[in-house]
TrEMBL record:
UniProt feature coiled coil, ranges: none
PANTHER family to which the protein is assigned, alphabetical: RIBOFLAVIN KINASE, RIBOFLAVIN KINASE/FMN ADENYLYLTRANSFERASE
InterPro entries hit by this protein: FAD_synthase (IPR015864), Riboflavin_kinase (IPR023468), Riboflavin_kinase_bac (IPR002606), Riboflavin_kinase_bac/euk (IPR015865), Riboflavin_kinase_dom_sf (IPR023465), Rossmann-like_a/b/a_fold (IPR014729)
Enzyme class of the recorded protein, top EC level: transferase
EC nos: 2.7.1.26, 2.7.7.2
GO biological process terms held by the UniProt record: FAD biosynthetic process; FMN biosynthetic process; riboflavin biosynthetic process
Catalytic activity: riboflavin + ATP = FMN + ADP + H(+); FMN + ATP + H(+) = FAD + diphosphate
Physiological role: Catalyzes the phosphorylation of riboflavin to FMN followed by the adenylation of FMN to FAD.
Protein name listed in UniProt: Riboflavin biosynthesis protein
NCBIfam families: ribF (TIGR00083)
Assigned protein family: Belongs to the ribF family.
SUPFAM superfamilies referenced in this protein's UniProt entry, alphabetically: Nucleotidylyl transferase, Riboflavin kinase-like
Record has 4Fe-4S as a keyword: no
């Protein structure tokens, strides 16, 4: 997948049949998947290029001034999922305060038509753009009627009586409803994180763990979880000015494990919650690796123990329960 971070280096004559989806794609849930599937199918029909335009920052992080949502999918995770979904071109732009002042009409004329020369544009049913939020399906249809480009409004994906949305998914994950999150996402919830050094307490207790510097912020309630873990070796490599290649060099084997997410109240009073994973029957070094953690089920909530011995006894029980659950629930549909 090619990534363009500076539109001034883009040459639209090289991509005459550009089929473009606009969106944040946070979580890459079933609604997003439907949009991307339409784009790739449409590009194939007209022998064009399947593309998305998205942002490095969630727009509300720039606009909300402290009242922004937590992120479901980090930038690298989002790029990985778009790559796996066969997107060929990703316009990855900075959403700055200056960019936020761009009006919907200016964005369509100067960016979509002027810089990109789009052939077709796809937008989700409730998506908005522009400083006045006028940019939506109704706003786009007159451009399509004049023949400036073809426009497609992608309908919502319903799960039961609810629309699959990033807002709803954040809510149910934070509430610990992993089953509902899985239905909305179309797969179990997962996040990316870099394995970093911790205090070494897990090793001292007989269960070595890798602390994770999470690249996303939406986490389930504090507690113990049965999880699947795999190392993802992917990178953005600059190929020329304003252009990068997104490469997936290697996807590791899926491994079973146990995740603790919490503040370590047995050892600390005012700690910050940190996820750490213990991989079952695994002895290689993980430090520095980018890993994807797929959250299966909650084993128990956070607890404080009076001594190290009782904590060790509980960890042994947790690992046994997690292993049994993972054996009984083989993972499916990991992209």
């Amino acid at each position: 997948m090619k990534i363009i971070t500076d539109l001034s280096h883009y040459r639209k004559m090289e991509y005459p049949n550009l089929v473009l989806a606009l969106g944040n794609f946070d979580g890459f849930h079933r609604g997003h998947q439907e949009i991307v599937r339409f784009v790739t199918d449409e590009a194939r029909k007209i022998k064009g290029t399947a593309a998305v335009l998205t942002f490095k920052q969630h727009p509300r992080r720039v606009l909300a001034h402290g009242d922004a949502p937590t992120i479901l999918t980090s930038m690298m995770h989002k790029l990985y999922l778009l790559h796996q979904a066969s997107i060929e071109l990703c316009f990855l732009l900075d959403f700055s305060a200056e960019f936020a002042r761009t009006g919907a009409d200016e964005f369509v004329r100067h960016v979509l038509m002027g810089s990109l020369g789009v052939k077709e544009v796809c937008l989700g049913f409730n998506a908005h753009f522009g400083n006045d939020r006028r940019g939506n399906a109704a706003f786009m249809k007159p451009y399509a009627a004049k023949g400036d480009f073809k426009f497609h409004e992608i309908k919502s994906v319903m799960v039961g009586s609810e629309v699959a949305s990033s807002t709803l998914i954040r809510k149910v994950i934070q509430q610990g409803d992993l089953g509902k999150a899985q239905m909305l996402l179309g797969k179990p919830y997962s996040f990316f994180g870099e394995a970093v050094s911790g205090h070494g307490r897990g090793k001292m207790l007989g269960y070595p763990t890798a602390n994770l510097d999470t690249h996303s912020e939406t986490m389930p309630p504090e507690g113990i979880y049965a999880v699947w873990i795999r190392v993802i070796d992917c990178e953005m490599v600059e190929s020329s000015a304003g252009w990068h290649d997104f490469r997936v060099n290697k996807t590791g084997k899926l491994l079973s494990g146990v995740m603790y997410y919490g503040k370590c109240p047995t050892f600390e009073k005012d700690g910050k919650p940190v996820p750490e994973v213990h991989i079952l029957d695994y002895h290689d070094e993980l430090k520095g690796a980018l890993v994807e953690v797929t959250v299966g089920a909650c084993i128990r909530g956070e607890r404080t123990f009076t001594d190290q011995e009782s904590l060790c006894e509980q960890i042994e029980k947790d690992v046994t329960i997690a292993k049994k659950w993972l054996d009984e629930h083989p993972i499916f549909r990991i992209s």
